[in-house]
From TrEMBL:
CC terms in the record's Gene Ontology section: extracellular region
Signal peptide interval: 1-23
Superkingdom assignment: Eukaryota
Function: Cleaves peptide substrates after methionine, leucine, and norleucine. Physiological substrates include EZR, alpha-tubulins and the apoptosis inhibitor BIRC5/Survivin. Promotes caspase activation and subsequent apoptosis of target cells.
Native species: Carassius auratus (Goldfish)
PROSITE patterns in the record: TRYPSIN_DOM (PS50240), TRYPSIN_HIS (PS00134)
Subcellular location: Secreted
Entry annotated with the keyword rRNA processing: no
Protein name in the entry: Granzyme M
Family listed: Belongs to the peptidase S1 family.
Gene3D superfamilies: Trypsin-like serine proteases
Gene: LOC113084794
Keywords of this entry: Disulfide bond, Hydrolase, Protease, Secreted, Serine protease, Signal, Zymogen
Amino acid sequence: MDVCRYLIVHCLLALTFSKLADCSEVSIVGGKDVKKHQPWMVSIQMNQIHVCGGILIQDQWVLTAAHCQQKPITSVTVLVGSLSLSKGTQRVGILGYEYPKTFNVKTKQDDIMLIKLSKKVSVKPKKIPKKEQNIPPGTKCVVTGWGTTNSEVLKPSDKLQMLEVTVVDRDLCNCYYNRDPVITKDMLCAGNKQENRGICWGDSGGPLDCKKNIVGVVSGSKECGKPKQPAVYTFISEKHIRWINNILKKQFNSTNF
């Protein structure tokens, strides 16, 4: 039996005998409304239409996925601190984007980005961990976003959604994806064992919260809510924490991009 087949069989057996191990899809299709206010959760919008989620990590900086970049920036705004897209009131423009030169949209390498807002906002941010967190397979986490709740309708959810997911072993995730993309140490996979529960259009850039820490940013999945295709996240690894801190330090006391 080859390694990938062994890992998949092992995971399926674990599902049979334990509720602690999930080896399929992650997601917000099939999620539930967020009830508790999350002021740091933002909606990135193009012409006031939601395209991606993001996390306010400082009063003028949003963390999201690099593939969420939209142009022209004069048409991009960020809705801050609302559980409903239609009822949000604090909207700000953006000054520009910062993302790693190593970002690759095909391989999902370094799919991470910082957005500088046009002004500081009066909302409490969600700070990223000071150091890389240990997130072993089987860890229970929560993914949050405004992505569509119906994979056949490309329309964002008006209400912020959430779903509990479970971190999947990287080797197993590589087997599921046939190493396309290759899941590196700077990525995470997470899933939910039930059918029709998955991230979908509009969930990119949103947070993966594990143990009360933001440890990942939604990068994507090949399909919405399909088994054996766990969602891929950009892991807030030591490398990415260092990159974020360098950008923030470089831009401190600067008003220009």
